[in-house]
Design a protein that fits this description.
DNA integration, Tyrosine_recombinase_XerCD, 2 domains, mainly alpha, about 325 residues, hpI Integrase, Chain A, 3 strands, Integrase_recombinase_N, three-stranded antiparallel beta sheet, DNA polymerase, domain 1
Length: about 325
Protein backbone atom coordinates (compact mmCIF):
# COMPACT_ATOMS: atom_id res chain seq x y z
CA UNK A 1 0.00 0.00 0.00
CA UNK A 2 2.88 2.36 0.70
CA UNK A 3 5.18 1.43 -2.25
CA UNK A 4 4.41 4.60 -4.21
CA UNK A 5 4.28 6.90 -1.18
CA UNK A 6 7.09 9.01 0.23
CA UNK A 7 7.62 8.87 4.03
CA UNK A 8 6.44 11.92 5.93
CA UNK A 9 6.17 12.53 9.67
CA UNK A 10 2.80 13.91 10.89
CA UNK A 11 4.39 17.04 12.40
CA UNK A 12 6.28 17.78 9.17
CA UNK A 13 3.15 17.22 7.13
CA UNK A 14 1.24 19.62 9.36
CA UNK A 15 3.81 22.37 8.84
CA UNK A 16 3.91 21.81 5.08
CA UNK A 17 0.11 22.07 4.94
CA UNK A 18 0.04 25.31 6.93
CA UNK A 19 2.82 26.81 4.80
CA UNK A 20 0.98 25.83 1.62
CA UNK A 21 -2.29 27.43 2.71
CA UNK A 22 -0.84 30.53 4.34
CA UNK A 23 -1.15 32.55 1.13
CA UNK A 24 -4.87 31.84 0.75
CA UNK A 25 -6.20 31.85 4.32
CA UNK A 26 -6.29 34.57 6.96
CA UNK A 27 -3.85 34.32 9.83
CA UNK A 28 -6.73 33.64 12.20
CA UNK A 29 -7.84 30.68 10.10
CA UNK A 30 -4.27 29.38 9.85
CA UNK A 31 -4.01 29.47 13.65
CA UNK A 32 -7.32 27.63 13.95
CA UNK A 33 -6.18 24.93 11.50
CA UNK A 34 -2.87 24.70 13.33
CA UNK A 35 -4.58 24.07 16.64
CA UNK A 36 -6.89 21.40 15.23
CA UNK A 37 -4.06 19.59 13.46
CA UNK A 38 -1.91 19.78 16.58
CA UNK A 39 -4.46 17.53 18.28
CA UNK A 40 -4.15 15.05 15.43
CA UNK A 41 -0.35 15.12 15.45
CA UNK A 42 -0.27 14.54 19.21
CA UNK A 43 -2.64 11.61 18.79
CA UNK A 44 -0.38 10.14 16.10
CA UNK A 45 2.63 10.45 18.41
CA UNK A 46 0.78 8.80 21.30
CA UNK A 47 -0.42 6.03 18.99
CA UNK A 48 3.01 5.35 17.53
CA UNK A 49 2.20 6.64 14.03
CA UNK A 50 5.39 8.33 12.86
CA UNK A 51 4.82 8.01 9.10
CA UNK A 52 1.65 9.25 7.39
CA UNK A 53 2.12 6.58 4.71
CA UNK A 54 0.74 4.03 7.17
CA UNK A 55 -2.40 5.97 8.03
CA UNK A 56 -5.63 4.09 7.30
CA UNK A 57 -9.35 4.69 7.47
CA UNK A 58 -9.44 2.64 10.64
CA UNK A 59 -6.89 4.98 12.23
CA UNK A 60 -9.08 7.96 11.33
CA UNK A 61 -12.02 6.23 12.97
CA UNK A 62 -10.05 5.65 16.18
CA UNK A 63 -8.98 9.30 16.25
CA UNK A 64 -12.58 10.38 15.81
CA UNK A 65 -13.76 8.14 18.64
CA UNK A 66 -10.98 9.40 20.91
CA UNK A 67 -11.87 13.06 20.32
CA UNK A 68 -15.58 12.42 20.81
CA UNK A 69 -15.55 9.98 23.72
CA UNK A 70 -12.39 10.76 25.69
CA UNK A 71 -11.98 14.47 24.94
CA UNK A 72 -15.71 15.18 25.01
CA UNK A 73 -15.83 17.28 21.84
CA UNK A 74 -19.28 18.65 21.04
CA UNK A 75 -20.73 17.87 17.63
CA UNK A 76 -20.03 21.33 16.23
CA UNK A 77 -16.41 21.23 17.41
CA UNK A 78 -15.99 17.71 16.05
CA UNK A 79 -17.27 18.85 12.68
CA UNK A 80 -14.66 21.62 12.54
CA UNK A 81 -11.91 19.25 13.66
CA UNK A 82 -12.71 16.65 11.00
CA UNK A 83 -13.24 19.21 8.23
CA UNK A 84 -9.71 20.51 8.77
CA UNK A 85 -8.31 17.00 8.95
CA UNK A 86 -10.03 16.15 5.67
CA UNK A 87 -8.40 19.12 3.94
CA UNK A 88 -5.05 18.15 5.46
CA UNK A 89 -5.30 14.56 4.16
CA UNK A 90 -6.30 15.83 0.71
CA UNK A 91 -3.13 17.92 0.68
CA UNK A 92 -1.07 14.97 1.91
CA UNK A 93 -2.41 12.82 -0.92
CA UNK A 94 -1.32 15.47 -3.42
CA UNK A 95 2.28 15.17 -2.22
CA UNK A 96 2.27 11.36 -2.09
CA UNK A 97 2.20 11.14 1.71
CA UNK A 98 -1.08 9.23 2.19
CA UNK A 99 -3.17 6.88 0.11
CA UNK A 100 -5.31 8.83 -2.40
CA UNK A 101 -8.94 9.00 -1.33
CA UNK A 102 -8.22 8.69 2.39
CA UNK A 103 -9.84 12.08 2.94
CA UNK A 104 -13.09 10.71 1.50
CA UNK A 105 -13.32 8.25 4.38
CA UNK A 106 -14.00 11.14 6.75
CA UNK A 107 -17.73 11.67 7.19
CA UNK A 108 -18.58 14.97 8.86
CA UNK A 109 -21.20 14.83 11.62
CA UNK A 110 -24.46 16.65 10.99
CA UNK A 111 -25.06 19.56 13.32
CA UNK A 112 -28.50 20.82 14.27
CA UNK A 113 -29.92 23.49 16.54
CA UNK A 114 -29.95 20.85 19.26
CA UNK A 115 -26.16 20.87 19.32
CA UNK A 116 -26.28 24.34 20.85
CA UNK A 117 -27.53 22.66 24.03
CA UNK A 118 -23.91 21.73 24.78
CA UNK A 119 -22.96 25.37 25.24
CA UNK A 120 -23.47 26.65 28.74
CA UNK A 121 -21.61 28.54 31.43
CA UNK A 122 -21.00 26.26 34.39
CA UNK A 123 -21.33 27.66 37.89
CA UNK A 124 -17.58 27.34 38.45
CA UNK A 125 -16.78 29.21 35.27
CA UNK A 126 -19.39 31.89 35.95
CA UNK A 127 -17.92 32.46 39.40
CA UNK A 128 -14.43 32.78 37.94
CA UNK A 129 -15.63 35.37 35.45
CA UNK A 130 -17.62 37.33 38.03
CA UNK A 131 -14.82 37.20 40.61
CA UNK A 132 -12.47 38.64 37.98
CA UNK A 133 -14.90 41.46 37.25
CA UNK A 134 -15.48 42.04 40.97
CA UNK A 135 -11.75 42.54 41.47
CA UNK A 136 -10.68 44.34 38.31
CA UNK A 137 -13.81 45.86 36.71
CA UNK A 138 -16.10 46.41 39.67
CA UNK A 139 -19.48 48.06 39.00
CA UNK A 140 -18.74 48.70 35.33
CA UNK A 141 -21.31 48.12 32.61
CA UNK A 142 -19.74 44.75 31.84
CA UNK A 143 -19.76 43.67 35.48
CA UNK A 144 -23.34 44.76 36.12
CA UNK A 145 -24.65 43.10 32.96
CA UNK A 146 -22.97 39.73 33.49
CA UNK A 147 -23.92 39.63 37.19
CA UNK A 148 -27.56 40.08 36.19
CA UNK A 149 -27.45 37.62 33.30
CA UNK A 150 -25.96 34.86 35.45
CA UNK A 151 -28.06 35.49 38.55
CA UNK A 152 -31.40 35.88 36.78
CA UNK A 153 -31.02 33.82 33.60
CA UNK A 154 -32.68 36.64 31.65
CA UNK A 155 -32.68 36.61 27.87
CA UNK A 156 -30.30 39.28 26.60
CA UNK A 157 -33.18 41.22 25.01
CA UNK A 158 -35.04 41.34 28.33
CA UNK A 159 -31.91 42.53 30.14
CA UNK A 160 -31.09 45.30 27.67
CA UNK A 161 -34.74 46.43 27.76
CA UNK A 162 -34.62 47.25 31.48
CA UNK A 163 -34.79 50.83 32.73
CA UNK A 164 -33.25 52.24 35.89
CA UNK A 165 -36.77 52.60 37.29
CA UNK A 166 -37.32 48.85 36.83
CA UNK A 167 -34.76 48.19 39.52
CA UNK A 168 -35.92 48.37 43.14
CA UNK A 169 -32.94 48.34 45.47
CA UNK A 170 -35.08 48.16 48.64
CA UNK A 171 -37.16 45.23 47.37
CA UNK A 172 -34.10 43.71 45.67
CA UNK A 173 -35.96 43.06 42.46
CA UNK A 174 -36.25 43.79 38.75
CA UNK A 175 -39.56 44.39 37.00
CA UNK A 176 -39.77 43.00 33.48
CA UNK A 177 -42.18 44.89 31.18
CA UNK A 178 -43.15 44.46 27.53
CA UNK A 179 -42.81 47.91 25.85
CA UNK A 180 -43.10 47.47 22.07
CA UNK A 181 -44.16 51.10 21.55
CA UNK A 182 -40.87 52.37 22.93
CA UNK A 183 -38.45 49.92 21.43
CA UNK A 184 -38.10 47.07 23.92
CA UNK A 185 -40.00 43.82 23.93
CA UNK A 186 -40.18 40.55 25.81
CA UNK A 187 -40.12 37.29 23.88
CA UNK A 188 -43.42 36.14 25.39
CA UNK A 189 -44.86 39.66 25.33
CA UNK A 190 -47.31 40.45 28.12
CA UNK A 191 -47.18 36.96 29.57
CA UNK A 192 -43.45 37.42 30.13
CA UNK A 193 -43.94 40.40 32.44
CA UNK A 194 -42.85 39.57 35.95
CA UNK A 195 -40.76 40.53 38.97
CA UNK A 196 -37.41 38.84 39.44
CA UNK A 197 -35.73 38.66 42.84
CA UNK A 198 -32.08 39.63 43.19
CA UNK A 199 -29.34 38.66 45.62
CA UNK A 200 -27.62 41.13 47.91
CA UNK A 201 -24.41 40.84 45.89
CA UNK A 202 -26.13 41.72 42.62
CA UNK A 203 -27.88 44.66 44.27
CA UNK A 204 -24.59 45.98 45.62
CA UNK A 205 -23.14 45.93 42.12
CA UNK A 206 -26.21 47.57 40.58
CA UNK A 207 -26.33 50.24 43.29
CA UNK A 208 -22.70 51.17 42.65
CA UNK A 209 -23.10 50.96 38.89
CA UNK A 210 -26.02 53.37 38.95
CA UNK A 211 -24.58 55.80 41.50
CA UNK A 212 -20.96 55.87 40.31
CA UNK A 213 -20.43 54.65 36.75
CA UNK A 214 -23.77 54.89 34.95
CA UNK A 215 -23.32 57.47 32.13
CA UNK A 216 -26.84 58.86 32.52
CA UNK A 217 -27.62 58.47 28.84
CA UNK A 218 -31.22 58.30 27.62
CA UNK A 219 -32.41 56.12 24.75
CA UNK A 220 -34.20 57.33 21.63
CA UNK A 221 -37.52 57.36 23.50
CA UNK A 222 -36.30 59.44 26.43
CA UNK A 223 -36.15 56.43 28.75
CA UNK A 224 -33.33 55.83 31.24
CA UNK A 225 -31.85 52.41 30.43
CA UNK A 226 -30.43 50.37 33.27
CA UNK A 227 -27.63 49.19 31.00
CA UNK A 228 -26.42 52.21 29.08
CA UNK A 229 -23.42 53.22 27.02
CA UNK A 230 -22.15 56.77 26.77
CA UNK A 231 -24.66 57.44 24.01
CA UNK A 232 -27.77 55.33 24.53
CA UNK A 233 -29.26 52.02 25.61
CA UNK A 234 -26.93 49.03 25.45
CA UNK A 235 -27.66 47.15 22.22
CA UNK A 236 -28.05 43.41 22.01
CA UNK A 237 -25.03 43.21 19.73
CA UNK A 238 -22.86 45.09 22.21
CA UNK A 239 -24.13 42.83 25.00
CA UNK A 240 -23.06 39.82 22.95
CA UNK A 241 -19.63 41.38 22.46
CA UNK A 242 -19.29 41.80 26.23
CA UNK A 243 -20.12 38.12 26.74
CA UNK A 244 -17.59 37.06 24.12
CA UNK A 245 -14.97 39.32 25.67
CA UNK A 246 -15.21 38.01 29.23
CA UNK A 247 -15.79 34.33 28.51
CA UNK A 248 -12.31 34.03 26.99
CA UNK A 249 -10.30 32.01 29.56
CA UNK A 250 -7.22 34.18 29.04
CA UNK A 251 -9.16 37.18 30.38
CA UNK A 252 -10.46 35.76 33.65
CA UNK A 253 -7.79 33.12 34.34
CA UNK A 254 -4.72 34.16 32.34
CA UNK A 255 -4.54 30.72 30.75
CA UNK A 256 -5.38 29.34 27.33
CA UNK A 257 -6.87 25.85 26.98
CA UNK A 258 -6.06 25.93 23.25
CA UNK A 259 -2.26 26.08 23.66
CA UNK A 260 -2.05 29.50 22.03
CA UNK A 261 0.40 32.26 22.83
CA UNK A 262 -1.96 34.66 24.56
CA UNK A 263 -0.26 37.89 23.50
CA UNK A 264 -0.08 36.74 19.88
CA UNK A 265 -3.54 35.17 19.62
CA UNK A 266 -5.82 36.70 16.98
CA UNK A 267 -8.69 36.60 19.49
CA UNK A 268 -6.78 38.79 21.95
CA UNK A 269 -8.15 42.16 20.66
CA UNK A 270 -11.60 42.85 22.05
CA UNK A 271 -12.98 43.29 18.54
CA UNK A 272 -11.94 39.70 17.72
CA UNK A 273 -13.03 38.09 21.00
CA UNK A 274 -15.73 36.10 19.20
CA UNK A 275 -13.03 34.14 17.33
CA UNK A 276 -11.78 32.50 20.53
CA UNK A 277 -12.93 28.84 20.53
CA UNK A 278 -13.98 29.21 24.17
CA UNK A 279 -15.85 32.52 23.81
CA UNK A 280 -19.60 32.27 24.35
CA UNK A 281 -22.59 34.50 23.66
CA UNK A 282 -25.04 35.59 26.39
CA UNK A 283 -27.42 32.65 25.87
CA UNK A 284 -25.11 30.10 27.56
CA UNK A 285 -25.39 32.28 30.69
CA UNK A 286 -29.14 31.69 30.59
CA UNK A 287 -28.73 27.98 29.91
CA UNK A 288 -26.15 27.68 32.67
CA UNK A 289 -28.28 29.60 35.15
CA UNK A 290 -31.30 27.37 34.51
CA UNK A 291 -29.19 24.23 34.88
CA UNK A 292 -27.57 25.55 38.06
CA UNK A 293 -30.93 26.30 39.67
CA UNK A 294 -32.14 22.80 38.82
CA UNK A 295 -28.95 21.24 40.20
CA UNK A 296 -29.41 23.22 43.41
CA UNK A 297 -32.88 21.69 43.87
CA UNK A 298 -34.78 24.87 43.09
CA UNK A 299 -38.36 23.65 42.47
CA UNK A 300 -39.07 23.43 38.77
CA UNK A 301 -42.14 25.73 38.89
CA UNK A 302 -39.93 28.43 40.48
CA UNK A 303 -37.36 28.05 37.70
CA UNK A 304 -40.16 28.16 35.12
CA UNK A 305 -41.63 31.39 36.44
CA UNK A 306 -38.31 33.10 37.15
CA UNK A 307 -36.81 32.34 33.75
CA UNK A 308 -40.08 32.70 31.80
CA UNK A 309 -39.80 29.31 30.15
CA UNK A 310 -42.12 26.31 30.00
CA UNK A 311 -41.16 23.01 31.59
CA UNK A 312 -41.32 21.34 28.17
CA UNK A 313 -38.76 23.80 26.80
CA UNK A 314 -36.59 23.37 29.90
CA UNK A 315 -36.58 19.60 29.40
CA UNK A 316 -35.80 19.81 25.68
CA UNK A 317 -33.35 22.69 25.48
CA UNK A 318 -31.96 23.74 28.85
CA UNK A 319 -31.78 20.98 31.42
CA UNK A 320 -28.21 19.65 31.37
CA UNK A 321 -28.54 17.37 34.40
CA UNK A 322 -27.57 13.75 33.92
CA UNK A 323 -30.44 11.23 34.29
CA UNK A 324 -28.84 9.85 37.46
CA UNK A 325 -28.73 13.34 38.95
CA UNK A 326 -32.43 13.86 38.22
CA UNK A 327 -33.18 10.53 39.87
CA UNK A 328 -31.22 11.44 42.98
CA UNK A 329 -33.02 14.76 43.30
CA UNK A 330 -36.48 13.27 42.78
CA UNK A 331 -35.78 10.65 45.43
CA UNK A 332 -35.44 13.38 48.08
CA UNK A 333 -39.12 14.19 47.71
CA UNK A 334 -40.38 10.62 47.85
CA UNK A 335 -41.49 8.92 51.09
CA UNK A 336 -39.03 6.38 52.47
CA UNK A 337 -41.02 3.15 52.40
Amino acid sequence: MTDELEPLAPSTGKQMYLDERRHELTEATIQSHGYRLKQFVLWCEDDGIDNLNNLSGRDIHRFRVKRREEDGLATASMKGQLATLRMFLRFCASIDAVTPGLDEKIILPTTTAEDARDELITADRANEILDHLQQYRYATLEHALLEVLWHTGLRVGAATGLDVSDYDSDERSLELSHRPDTGTTLKNQGSGERFVALSERVCDVLDDWISVNHPGAEDDYGRDPLFATQRSRLSRNRARSIAYQYTRPCVYSDRCPHDREIEECEARPTSQAHSCPSALSPHPFRRGAITYHLQEDTPEPVVRDRMDVSMDVIDRHYDQRAPQEKLRQRRQYLPDQ
